[in-house]
Amino acid sequence: EVLAEISSSSAAGNSGAMKRAISSGGSVPAGDAVAVPNCYFGKFMLSLLDLFQSDLQLLEDRGSFIIRQLCVLLSAEDIYQSLSEILLGREDLRFAAHMVQTLNTILLTSTELFELRNQLKDLNTKESCSLFCCLYRSWCHNPVATISLCLLTQNYEHTCSLLHLFSDMEVTVEFLTEIDKLVQLIESPIFTYLRLQLLDSPQQSYLVKSLYGLLMLLPQSEAFHTLRTRLACLPHPSLQQMDTGTTIRRTADNSSAERCKSEINFQELLEHFQKVQESHKKAKPAARLSQVLRLSGSVDSGHQA
User: Fold this and answer.
1) Sorting pLDDT into bands at 50, 70 and 90, what band is 236?
2) pLDDT tens digits along 241-279
3) Which member of 28, 68, 163, 277 lies 3.0 to 4.6 Å from 213 by CB, making a disulfide possible if both were Cys?
4) pLDDT in tens, 152-166
5) Which of 69, 62, 64 is nearest to 27 (CA)?
6) Among the listed residues 251, 53, 277, the one whose alpha carbon sits nearest the alpha carbon of residue 147
């Protein structure tokens, strides 16, 4: 039904390949590219999100596969930007948070999004900075996903600012589980560059502080001990004095990225994060009441039966 929106256009190229692949559970051949007009693309992405929202089981079972295949067929950047913009207007905050978590996991772990990860990691163009800001605004529906996006994009100072706000949030099992998964990702090949930056700990003080912030949020679990062990591997201060020349060269290499980042209004992003989280805080009592009423209705139906 969703795919019919896009395949109905004669300009949709090889969309039949996409439809067959997603419907059958197979993958799309590398040579099958799809050219999609903007109007059909927007309608398609909107319909896809509507479908996921109406069928959460589909999102759980096939959501990751569908999105990854779309990123192969179309532009991963366009897919993520479009979904992010649509999620900003969603009134169902719980679904928005769930969808952001799904998109974030795909972004950080899928081989299909390797190029997009590199683009976001460097943030050395206006386009990549614009994409970061777009994703950030919808990623705010999920605090831990927002932290992981900032770590991916090497915005460590902003990560510290976000972690300070976590003290006012409700710490749930789900919240701690997400931090646990983030620690596992930090230990994965995806974040190799981040771990290597710990060799320059005096120059990366915000990174070190961010990791310690995550450590303080965790109970003394396996993830806690994993992260503490990593932080215990920070080089001795005497070794840092031997690396001055390398640091200067690295600073020069990062100058273009710093120029682009300087145009990002991080204070405005931080205020947006607080606003979105306040909306979630206000919506929670109503959501819990609705859940209690549903459970109560189920119990009553069972007694009547």
Assistant:
1) confident
2) 655 555 545 555 567 677 888 889 999 999 999 999 999
3) 163
4) 999 999 999 999 999
5) 69
6) 277
Residues 69 and 18 sit within 8 Å (Cβ to Cβ): yes
Q: What is the pLDDT of residues 169-192, one digit of tens each?
A: 988 999 999 999 999 999 999 999
Q: Is the pLDDT of residue 298 over 80?
A: no
Round to whole Å and give the CA distance between 285 and 23: 39
- pTM here is 0.82
In the numeric block, which tokens belong to residue 38?
């903007």
Q: Higher model confidence: residue 23 or residue 151?
A: 151
Tokens 């965790």, residue? 218
Which residues neighbour 113 within 8 Å (Cβ) at sequence distance 6 or greater? 68, 71, 76, 106, 107
Q: How far is CA 220 from the centre of its chain?
A: 25
Take residue 251 and report the two structure tokens written for it: 């600073």
Contacts of residue 194, defined as CB under 8 A and 6 or more positions apart, other chains included, come to: 151, 154, 186, 207
Measure the CA–CA gap between 52 and 36, rounded to whole angstroms: 21
Residue 231, phi then psi, degrees to nearest 5: -70, -25
The count of other CB atoms within 10 Å of the CB of residue 125 is 13
- Model confidence over 37-48: pLDDT tens digits? 467 888 999 999
Cα distances from 29 to residues 22, 63, 190, in angstroms, run 12, 19, 25
Give residue 61's identity as a one-letter amino acid code.
Answer: D
Joined tokens for residue 12: 């949709």
